[in-house]
Here is the input.
Amino acid sequence: MVSMNELVEQIKELDSEMSMTLNLTNGDSMEVGAADCWIGGEGCDGWMCDYLGNTVYSDANSLAEEIFDNLDGAEIESID
Here is the structure.
Protein backbone atom coordinates (compact mmCIF):
# COMPACT_ATOMS: atom_id res chain seq x y z
CA MET A 1 0.00 0.00 0.00
CA VAL A 2 1.08 3.57 -0.67
CA SER A 3 1.67 5.82 2.35
CA MET A 4 0.93 9.54 2.60
CA ASN A 5 4.66 10.36 2.45
CA GLU A 6 5.16 8.22 -0.65
CA LEU A 7 2.23 9.93 -2.37
CA VAL A 8 3.55 13.41 -1.52
CA GLU A 9 6.95 12.54 -3.03
CA GLN A 10 5.34 11.14 -6.19
CA ILE A 11 3.18 14.26 -6.60
CA LYS A 12 6.25 16.51 -6.24
CA GLU A 13 7.92 14.59 -9.10
CA LEU A 14 5.16 15.50 -11.58
CA ASP A 15 6.25 18.09 -14.12
CA SER A 16 4.13 19.90 -16.68
CA GLU A 17 2.16 17.50 -18.90
CA MET A 18 2.79 14.58 -16.54
CA SER A 19 0.18 12.57 -14.70
CA MET A 20 -0.12 9.40 -12.68
CA THR A 21 -2.88 6.96 -11.86
CA LEU A 22 -3.63 5.94 -8.29
CA ASN A 23 -5.02 2.39 -8.25
CA LEU A 24 -7.32 1.83 -5.29
CA THR A 25 -8.09 -1.40 -3.44
CA ASN A 26 -11.80 -1.05 -4.29
CA GLY A 27 -11.06 -1.24 -8.04
CA ASP A 28 -11.42 2.50 -8.68
CA SER A 29 -8.64 4.80 -9.77
CA MET A 30 -7.77 8.49 -9.51
CA GLU A 31 -5.76 10.53 -12.00
CA VAL A 32 -3.37 13.13 -10.56
CA GLY A 33 -1.47 15.55 -12.77
CA ALA A 34 0.19 18.90 -13.15
CA ALA A 35 -2.53 21.56 -13.20
CA ASP A 36 -1.26 23.39 -16.26
CA CYS A 37 -1.76 20.37 -18.49
CA TRP A 38 -5.36 19.91 -17.29
CA ILE A 39 -6.68 23.41 -17.52
CA GLY A 40 -4.61 24.45 -20.50
CA GLY A 41 -2.86 27.42 -18.92
CA GLU A 42 0.89 27.73 -19.19
CA GLY A 43 2.44 28.66 -15.90
CA CYS A 44 -0.40 27.40 -13.68
CA ASP A 45 1.48 26.04 -10.67
CA GLY A 46 0.20 23.09 -8.70
CA TRP A 47 -1.60 19.80 -9.19
CA MET A 48 -5.11 18.49 -9.70
CA CYS A 49 -6.93 15.20 -9.11
CA ASP A 50 -9.84 14.24 -11.37
CA TYR A 51 -11.75 12.75 -8.44
CA LEU A 52 -11.58 16.02 -6.47
CA GLY A 53 -12.89 18.31 -9.21
CA ASN A 54 -11.40 21.49 -10.59
CA THR A 55 -9.45 22.52 -7.51
CA VAL A 56 -5.78 23.38 -8.04
CA TYR A 57 -3.58 22.47 -5.08
CA SER A 58 -0.36 24.46 -4.83
CA ASP A 59 0.95 22.25 -2.03
CA ALA A 60 1.60 18.52 -2.56
CA ASN A 61 0.88 17.79 1.12
CA SER A 62 -2.56 19.42 0.90
CA LEU A 63 -3.46 17.42 -2.20
CA ALA A 64 -2.27 14.15 -0.63
CA GLU A 65 -4.28 14.84 2.53
CA GLU A 66 -7.39 15.60 0.48
CA ILE A 67 -6.95 12.39 -1.52
CA PHE A 68 -6.57 10.29 1.64
CA ASP A 69 -9.61 12.02 3.19
CA ASN A 70 -11.72 11.01 0.17
CA LEU A 71 -10.77 7.33 -0.18
CA ASP A 72 -14.01 6.16 1.50
CA GLY A 73 -12.35 3.19 3.19
CA ALA A 74 -10.20 2.18 0.22
CA GLU A 75 -6.41 2.34 0.16
CA ILE A 76 -3.99 3.28 -2.59
CA GLU A 77 -2.71 -0.04 -3.83
CA SER A 78 -0.23 1.20 -6.44
CA ILE A 79 0.78 4.16 -8.59
CA ASP A 80 1.19 3.97 -12.37
The longest strand covers residues 19-24. The chain is about 30% helix and 25% strand. The CA atoms of residues 65 and 80 lie 19 Å apart. The mean pLDDT is 90.
